[in-house]
Amino acid sequence: MTATTVQTTTVDTPPTAFRGLVRTTLRLHRSALWFWVLLLVVAAGALLWMYGPGGDAMWHLYQPESCTAPGVDSCHFQPGSAINRYDTVSALATGLLSLAPLLTAAWAGAALIGRELENGTAALAWTQSVSPARWLAAKLAVPAALLVTGTVALTLLHRTVWSANGTLWQSVGRQWHQENVYIANGTLLTAYALLALAVGALAGLLARRALPALVTALVSLFAALYVLGDLRPHLWPVKTLTGTDGYPPYRDTDMVLGDGALTSTGARVEDPLCVDDAACLARHDIVGFYRDYHPASHFWPLQLVETGIVLAVAAALTVAAFALLRRRTA
């Protein structure tokens, strides 16, 4: 009688494929990771300098006794090289932060998605017990976590510097409503970084080649930034100042959207430019003047409404990317 021993081999497929894909993503894109860390360090270093020695040097040049009227522009600084240095470093800090979404879109489209589809490494990963949906989820989750961590940290640091030295920023021509300052000073920096990631991923899936994906991602993100920036002043009701003896005064920190003349019926018309000529005003039926503006107190309402729109668009593009991938790999 012959005894036969049957060995049963169990194929273990633990749920570590996703974690392995995360590690692979970090390893493949370690150059981009180090570049992101370098950008964070340089931007944080610039902001810390502005908060510390740079700000102290500027405050030594400040002349509060020259503030004879409300508004920053009426307060003067003594001439000195510290002003030029502070202006340069503040431009560097806000410029680096404004570059983050653009660099993210370019990298996501060209390297993260486009190159892997073009080289076939994505198709290889799909044969290694990793579904296309999980592959894309890992590709988006890793950079999204890094982007959120970095941008939130920089935003908090930027707001700290702005809160402490807002007068200094405004003295070198940077107001709360200017593009770079506005985005870096609130939740929009993180929202736009996530939008850029979604735009780049969808562009990579559509083009399936690195260079066309890069161009598509950058053009699309530029278009989104332009449209949303143009829409920004209309996301919250404006305030209106009126006056009968010329234009009403406003604070230097206000975001002025438009002004003009008022007729006796309350209609808004173009200013005939004869404020001191009573006959001219009567001939044009001008009885007053108006000015539409956003005060500084509108920063957070405008910021949060735009953030909601940006995140909604980013979510829609992400859903579209998964749907496109599922259709192509069905």
Automatic annotation (TrEMBL):
Superkingdom of the source species: Bacteria
Keywords: Membrane, Transmembrane, Transmembrane helix
Bilayer-crossing regions: 33-52, 91-114, 135-161, 181-203, 210-229, 307-325
Protein's name in the database: ABC transporter permease
UniProt organism field: Streptomyces ruber
